Amino acid sequence: MRILITNDDGINAPGLEALEAIAAELAGPKGEVWTVAPAFEQSGVAHCISYVHPTLIAQLGPRRYAAEGTPADCVLAAIADVLKGNPPDLVLSGVNRGNNSGENVMYSGTIGGAMEAALQGLPAIALSQYMGPKTAALNDPFEAARVHGPALIRQLLEHGDWNADQDFRLFYNINFPPCDAASVKGVRVVAQGRRQGVRFEVEPYHAPNGRRFLWVMGGSQTAPATPGSDVDVNMQGYISLTPMRPDLTCHASLAGLRGALEKG
């Protein structure tokens, strides 16, 4: 198996090293693991692509590249340049330092990398590690992802509904709970949730030269969320698995709007 890995925390992020280990176990001794990851941290860029300027790419070692762009740029660079004519069998994005559950999905570069792979017709999985007091006390805060990731991905490759949508290939979002590997209770297949009362905000800051800047601030990651959602089961100690697709249409609203707005 040929696996492409990327992330949004950057080429030197510890979560990428964890993903390299997961990918190597999945690929096996006869497989290949290719890395094309951002040269610098790209957290919060979502599915952004560098459409108006070129992306510098450099080879750092065998099958290892850094691109001065977003995770989606990295996937495009891998498919159209680094692995041109010989695409990967699987794309893994992560392991993100911090969760991509709930509303975080909409901002996540980790999700953006997996989504771009799906748009390119490739099987893709985003992996993120929820952080908290229990993971902070571990020598390896990515322990849950590292231990449970390979087996779960194998099961997903075997049982995943990769072609449920005729127009958009599905991809999958996995979040590991904020605990050590032994404390993980299992896996739950759930929908994306929403934390109650959590919004991104900005906090003003004045530099010594008097200029005014704004820091973007996130909300509480432990706020109550939709029962049975990804956030909810993560906080209970379960791995969340959510099937996703790059289609933002609210299909439930189509019929009602057609009846009200279409005239003939």
Short précis:
This protein is of the alpha/beta class and 264 residues long.
Describe this structure in words.
GO terms for molecular function: 3'-nucleotidase activity. It catalyses: a ribonucleoside 5'-phosphate + H2O = a ribonucleoside + phosphate. There is one protein chain. This protein is an alpha/beta fold. It has one domain (2-193, 224-261): Survival protein SurE-like phosphatase/nucleotidase (Stationary-phase Survival Protein Sure Homolog, Chain: A, 3-Layer(aba) Sandwich). Helix content is 28%, strand content 24%. It has seven helices and eleven strands. The chain has helices at residues 14-27, 71-82, 109-119, 133-136, 143-159, 230-235, 251-261; strands at 2-6, 32-38, 57-61, 64-67, 90-97, 124-129, 171-176, 186-189, 201-206, 212-217, 238-244. The strands form two sheets. The protein has a nine-stranded mixed beta sheet, with helices on both faces. It has a two-stranded antiparallel ribbon with strand order 9-10. A hairpin with a 5-residue loop joins β9 (201-206) and β10 (212-217). The chain is globular, with a radius of gyration of 19 Å. The chain starts with a strand and ends with a helix. The model has no long low-confidence stretch (mean pLDDT 96).
